[in-house]
Amino acid sequence: MTPLSKISIALAVFAGATAVAHAETVQNPSWYIMPSIGVSKPDNRFNDGHNAPGVGLRFGKQVSPSWDMQVGGTYSRDHGQSPRYEQGTLGVDGLYMLSRGAVRPFVLVGAGAQRDKIGGSNETSPYISAGFGVQAAVTERLFVQADVRRSAAHLRGTTFNADHSITDSANIGLAYYFDKAPQPVRQAQYVPPPAPVAQAPAPMPVPVPVSPPPPPAPKFERITLSATELFGFDSAQLRSPQPKLDQLASTLVSAGGAETLNIVGYTDRLGSPAYNQKLSQRRADAVKAYLVGKGVTSGRLNAEGKGESNPVVECNNKKRADLITCLEPNRRVEVEQIVIERRVN
């Protein structure tokens, strides 16, 4: 039994077992890149039966819940004969996924162009291919893919004195998603209030002597202030006007006190984490500077940037303009809620 036959049988058994064992849905609509290594066995008309090692590079994407598309090419050569045989391919594969679990068996069909070369003779021909394989998740953004396939090329010229060729190959690659999979937004469930419990009527109160009321106690008003100011995309410039910040500054100045007010800046997820961290700090500093300009003591204000953490919305829009609009609530500065007590006469 040849090495390619053993690999084919092992993949078939593994795919059949894991298709039932793994039911967890794993879907990531972003593009991924997959370098690979492999071994191929061309027709005897090209070489003397040696297996030809090779490399490959493909780009892929989930195009539907059941299909992946992969575009790329391979290169292999046989060092065991003279003159040396070389083969290169460039094409597109469609992978029908039998599962979207952590381990994903699939069948594939493909088409493209194949270039065969022996010494000074070479010919480029169209080909079609079919095969099967399996993907196995390693991390949220990495997975391994192994497959075996058979390709049939139509030799249009007369260089190799044949009208077609057959190539069997086995490949294994490591794929990397460019973006993380979107997380589902969970909706809070409504819990109805408990039904009221019937109670026995209260007994009639016994009259008591009425004493004069005590003098009224002093009253305190508790005011809770909050302000959230949005920024434009990729900007630390506060929009104008700012009525909430004006009201907050006026209250802090008139109430006095020594309490500290925390100002926290955030960005959306577009851009690098390092850049977003600096942008969020500039946004928090912009709010602090605005309040200081309105008369609030600088020592009472603490500005902090938290980058793209703690998003309030999750967006997966395909068009960049729509994605920027959807992520607008994440570009914000939150002024932490404070409590100011003032005596009311």
Explained architecture:
This protein is elongated. The strands form 2 sheets. The protein has an 8-stranded antiparallel barrel. Strands 9-12-10-11 form a 4-stranded mixed beta sheet, with helices on one face. The protein contains 4 helices and 12 strands, in the order H-E-E-E-E-E-E-E-E-E-H-E-H-E-H-E. It has helices spanning 3-21, 243-255, 273-293, 320-326; strands spanning 32-41, 52-62, 67-78, 85-97, 103-118, 121-137, 142-154, 164-177, 219-230, 261-266, 301-305, 332-344. With 345 residues, the chain is α+β, with helices and mostly antiparallel strands. The model is unreliable at 12-24 and 218-227 (pLDDT under 50). It starts with a helix and ends with a strand.
Features:
345 residues, four-stranded mixed β-sheet, 17% helix, elongated
How would you sum up this structure in a few lines?
17% of the residues lie in helices and 41% in strands. The protein is α+β, with helices and mostly antiparallel strands and 345 residues long.
Task: Supply the helix-strand structural class.
Answer: alpha+beta
Cα-based radius of gyration, to the nearest Å: 34 Å
Question: What share of the residues lie within helices?
Answer: 10-25%
* Percent in strands: 35-45%
**Total number of β-strand segments?**
12
Averaged pLDDT: 80
Shape: elongated
Helix tally equals 4
Low-confidence stretches: 12-24, 218-227
How is the secondary structure organized here?
Elements: H1 3-21, E1 32-41, E2 52-62, E3 67-78, E4 85-97, E5 103-118, E6 121-137, E7 142-154, E8 164-177, E9 219-230, H2 243-255, E10 261-266, H3 273-293, E11 301-305, H4 320-326, E12 332-344
Parallel strand pairs: 10-11
Antiparallel strand pairs: 1-2, 1-8, 2-3, 3-4, 4-5, 5-6, 6-7, 7-8, 9-12, 10-12
